[in-house]
């Protein structure tokens, strides 16, 4: 894990002032870009993957590559987090981004933020045992722990704003049209 720790050390070595400036600059840049042409607000993300091992997947997202796998009980090699764990991780990381972004915009201070998520999944549909339930999570619980100088009420208002603006939370909370094709 030296590589991961080195990466964490490199990105963790940022001051609150530097973070605030980067958040402000990003907001300003995007507001200006979209004001010039509303079409600039439309982004398309492209990610690809290929099967490896028993049921693992090597994912390529831009310049980043990561592994997704399943535990042995689900036919995997347990070499990496599972797809549903990455989904919860995506939710958590998006929450951190949007909390920081809107705290900056609203003049609030976040000294530290930790987010955890739990999701309940019934595997009967996955294994074709019972087709009546959901294949995905039946319930997801997100817990946000923020430390900073603002009041609990201000952070609660921030949480409401974040829930309205978090793209990955929106994916969990609302139906998204998905099309598939076999090539």
Structure commentary:
By secondary structure, this protein is an alpha+beta fold. The protein contains five helices and five strands, in the order ααβββαββαα. The protein has helices at 2-12, 16-36, 83-106, 152-165, 167-173, and strands at 48-52, 56-61, 64-68, 112-121, 137-147. The strands form two sheets. Strands 1-2-3 form a three-stranded antiparallel β-sheet, with no helix packed on it. A hairpin with a 2-residue loop joins strand 2 (56-61) and strand 3 (64-68). The protein starts with a helix and ends in a 10-residue tail after the last helix.
Output the keywords.
183 residues, alpha+beta, 5 helices
Number of DSSP-assigned strands: 5
The unreliable regions are none
- Determine the structural class based on helices, strands and strand pairing: alpha+beta
Please tally the helical runs, counting DSSP H or I stretches of 4 or more residues: 5
Strand content of the residues, in percent?
Answer: 15-25%
Give me the side-by-side strand order of the main sheet.
1-2-3
Rg for CA atoms: 19 Å
Overall shape: globular
What number is the mean pLDDT?
94
- Largest sheet entry: 3 strands, antiparallel
- Termini separation comes to 38 Å
> Which series of helices and strands comes N to C?
HHEEEHEEHH
Helix content: 40-55%
In short:
By secondary structure, the protein is an alpha+beta fold. It contains five helices and five strands; from the N terminus they run ααβββαββαα.
Question: What topology does this entry show?
Answer:
Blueprint: H1 2-12, H2 16-36, E1 48-52, E2 56-61, E3 64-68, H3 83-106, E4 112-121, E5 137-147, H4 152-165, H5 167-173
Antiparallel strand pairs: 1-2, 2-3, 4-5
Helix pairs in contact: 2-3, 3-4, 3-5
